[in-house]
Amino acid sequence: KKDLVVLGIETSCDDTAAAVVRADGTVLGDSVVSQHEIHQQWGGVVPNLAKEAHAAAIDGVVEKALQKAEMNPEHVDAVAVTTGPGLEICLRIGFNAAKEFCKAHRKPFVAVNHLEGHCVLARMLHRDLEYPFLVVLVSGGHCQILVAEGEGIYALLGGTLDDAIGEAYDKTARLLGLQVGGGGGPAVEQLALNGDENAYDLPMPMRDKKNCNLSYAGLKNAVRLIAETDAGRRSEDIAASFQRVAIDHLIQKLRTAMKWCEARQPGRVRSMVVCGGVAANQRLRSRLTDVCSDFEWKLVVPPPRLCTDNGAMIAWAGIERIQRGILDNPQLLEVVSRWP
Ligand code: KG4
Ligand code: ZN
């Protein structure tokens, strides 16, 4: 049904988000309240503060998304909500809001995996994007390389063994004492523009491993060591050297993943979808453009506001599930913090 309309709700981490999306790929209305400022001073997401902020924001966010769509609850055909993975106490806020909405307005309910939302959003924006495609999820919380094989079928090729790449950017920003009003990643990227990326010989993680796993903890510790011991350091040089290794590491593992795809069946995978906050990084984007052109693959990078957590990706994942004939019974479900 092309005119199916779904309300999507997302509260798995530090963004309270909702959107009303139609099955032809149109975002009719969306709203998001970010908690970045609340957590910034603590150096990471504080679960209890996050839960309270979600609880305070959720009704207004849903109302605003509906308002922007010029719709009443009655106009919505179904509700999709993230039920994992994420912070349980946060997930429950969205889950309960969705349950209540469905009960009050007698609407069908569908549960969505947050990571699937990130993966399939590109299909909302590019309706001709065919399965299978490679997905690179790079944010403060996620760092994974997957193949989306078909609707609901994913192969995890690799992921971080410790920190996510965005987390490494954030920690580097803090070690360098940067003002991170706009987030640690952009601050490090900006500073790196004026630095010498070869000033420090930082260790390339897992260079000799032939798999697609990633690791950023060692790099972070190397940065910490320099920041703490090198009195004559130039922060620009550290930022540039960090960024060179952080991105080279990801690109190296992506090449391994792409080669694996080609070896398994040449020409079967032809596109790479990139999402998560780190996808905003210009240096990364240009490296991705190069590697995709080497392999003659298409590179798909959604606009930043759809790369980060949002309601539209959950609504769209819900639409795809409903169109496969899937609905869930919220009475039989619970939220799950771990859901690969
Ligand atoms: O997807 P996102 O908004 O939130 C979650 O992590 O869920 O991603 C935020 C992450 C932060 O770690 C931030 O530092 C990073 O993405 N980031 C960047 C850039 N912009 C945001 N990292 C590197 N370069 C950037 N330009
Ligand atoms: Zn996310």
UniProtKB/TrEMBL annotation:
Limits of the Gcp-like domain: 27-316
Q: An example Gene Ontology cellular component term from the record?
A: mitochondrion
Q: What is the first-listed, main subcellular location in coarse terms? A: mitochondrion
Q: Which residues form a coiled coil?
A: none
Which GO terms label this protein's molecular function in UniProt? metal ion binding; tRNA N(6)-L-threonylcarbamoyladenine synthase activity
What GO biological process, any one, is recorded here? tRNA threonylcarbamoyladenosine modification
What does the UniProt record say this protein does? Required for the formation of a threonylcarbamoyl group on adenosine at position 37 (t(6)A37) in mitochondrial tRNAs that read codons beginning with adenine. Probably involved in the transfer of the threonylcarbamoyl moiety of threonylcarbamoyl-AMP (TC-AMP) to the N6 group of A37. Involved in mitochondrial genome maintenance.
Q: What is this protein called?
A: N(6)-L-threonylcarbamoyladenine synthase
Identify the segment of the full-length protein shown. Answer: 77 to 416 of 424
